Amino acid sequence: xxxxxxxxxxxxxxxxxxxxxxxxxxxxxxxxxxxxxxxxxxxxxxxxxxxxxxxxxxxxxxxxxxxxxxxxxxxxxxxxxxxxxxxxxxxxxxxxxxxxxxxxxxxxxxxxxxxxxxxxxxxxxxxxxxxxxxxxxxxxxxxxxxxxxxxxxxxxxxxxxxxxxxxxxxxxxxxxxxxxxxxxxxxxxxxxxxxxxxxxxxxxxxxxxxxxxxxxxxxxxxxxxxxxxxxxxxxxxxxxxxxxxxxxxxxxxxxxxxxxxxxxxxxxxxxxxxxxxxxxxxxxxxxxxxxxxxxxxxxxxxxxxxxxxxxxxxxxxxxxxxxxxxxxxxxxxxxxxxxxxxxxxxxxxxxxxxxxxxxxxxxxxxxxxxxxxxxxxxxxxxxxxxxxxxxxxxxxxxxxxxxxxxxxxxxxxxxxx
Length: 417
Ligand SMILES: Cc1cc2nc3c(=O)[nH]c(=O)nc-3n(C[C@H](O)[C@H](O)[C@H](O)COP(=O)(O)OP(=O)(O)OC[C@H]3O[C@@H](n4cnc5c(N)ncnc54)[C@H](O)[C@@H]3O)c2cc1C
Fold this sequence. Notes:
Strand content: 25-35%
Structural class: alpha/beta
Bound molecules: flavin-adenine dinucleotide
Number of helices: 12
Low-confidence stretches: none
Oligomer: single chain
Distance between the termini: 38 Å
Radius of gyration: 21 Å
Helix content: 25-40%
């Protein structure tokens, strides 16, 4: 049954009914014996894949299987930065497609995802970094992506709390993307889930995939904690757990899983209305609508699946940011967490068919895939529907690692998110 639309009228109506009339945002179905497509992973990328399969490609006999709760992986753990200022053409194309879709996603999903195009600046604090960003700005101009290099005075104007004079690394300039910004991460997952459910797609939580079954070299279904479920096609979209799912499907991935951490401060009055990334000192910061300073740091230096924060990273990240934003030295930190990210060698994603027939994979977004969710979901849905990658996904195939055809995004995504 179609969901009632969220609207100002609905809000007023419910205000008079003690908010007793709201429906569940998505159904809670039991799995059917068989689907045309199963998507493993109820994060943003998996849910967006299922949504565009139904909405754009007309395939609605689809299930999304999530081992925990929707958005409980990296989608609900990231620092929500959205930008498309990447260097290489295939990256710029998919991240810009995603950024463009984010602009109208609240209307598309009838869910306020709080997209806030407040502007993102990536500080250049060494000559090397300055040259790297100048190169990216030139590439972006050729790609039709609106970015520009700005000087230290403009940086200070846009973000008065920055210390542009050092002490270790003075701000020499920044790569500025005015239409970049942030969005509410779990609303993105919830909005896609609601949209899926509305189209008759089954979104099934607490359902872990434990094995992949195949017949004659093609996928035939998955074993889950809720029993066997058959399928004609399988899309694996599980970020940091991609290696585990690939092993179940009988192939290996050039991906490492590491914990990436973030933290937030106590809420303070508005003091910063842009997003700033300081990649030389290795930290970045924005202010949430609640007033908390949202602070992101680095990834663990060793592979692991811990999905939690550590004292080492608090110290390292806060120390780095105090140099750039001295005022945060007086803030108390509220909470810290980690997510398991999937890192490829060239810091670009994998959207690809796999050696198992009918099985596709979307992974490798590493520290920066939140921004890509709508574009990645769209491109993956197209690949699954047609059986082969379309133009947006074509360059991101698994074969590039064998052929040495890397899409090097170490400047855009090696540290930055
Ligand atoms: C601290 C941190 C900060 C970040 N900051 C940013 C940022 O500012 N901007 C940005 O663009 N990106 C950022 N990222 C990266 C971004 O969060 C991820 O790239 C993105 O969310 C990946 O989404 P996903 O849907 O692929 O994965 P996830 O959201 O992790 O979803 C995968 C899902 O698969 C499920 N799953 C795993 N195994 C199984 C199984 N066997 N059966 C069923 N389900 C399974 C998991 O439970 C999980 O819910 C950050 C990440 C972290 C951790």
